[in-house]
Design goal:
Length: 137
């Protein structure tokens, strides 16, 4: 985070585990950066994780992808853990059929949509107000 501040960025949110989460820099325009994806649906991260597992199984990457922390729980977490064990024994694309996709998409809940919508609404409002000042001045 110190490097971001030294480079002129303002850190908006941070966590002890991940560091800077959202940060910005004002130049002629406002640059806003997110480490996460508040625009994602509940199953988007799961689909990206599945894509990365497929890359491992097709030998497009050497290491098995690490599961995103805190995103899967209960039966979904058990399913992805079992898939990892299965993939270690059978490294081929057919193993991907064991991915608990149906279980996850039926179980996931998007608890952040309202917050994400407010974030984007506020950002767009800021841009609208700022662009009005620039064109009026």
């Amino acid at each position: 985070m110190d490097d971001l501040v030294a480079a002129g960025y303002s850190v908006l949110t941070r966590s002890a585990e991940a560091g800077a989460d959202a940060f910005m820099k004002q130049r002629r325009s406002l640059f806003l950066f997110f480490q996460g994806h508040p625009e994602y649906d509940a199953d988007t991260l799961l689909l990206e994780y599945r894509r990365d597992i497929g890359r491992y199984l097709r030998r497009e990457r050497e290491t098995y992808p690490t599961a995103p922390r805190g995103c899967f729980d209960g039966p979904v977490l058990q399913g992805v853990q079992m898939l990892r064990l299965l993939a270690a024994q059978h490294r081929d694309e057919a193993t991907l059929a064991a991915f608990p996709l149906a279980l996850a998409t039926n179980h996931d809940e998007n608890t952040w949509r309202e917050t994400a919508a407010a974030l984007y609404r506020n950002w767009l409002h800021y841009l609208a107000v700022h662009s009005t000042r620039v064109t009026a001045g």
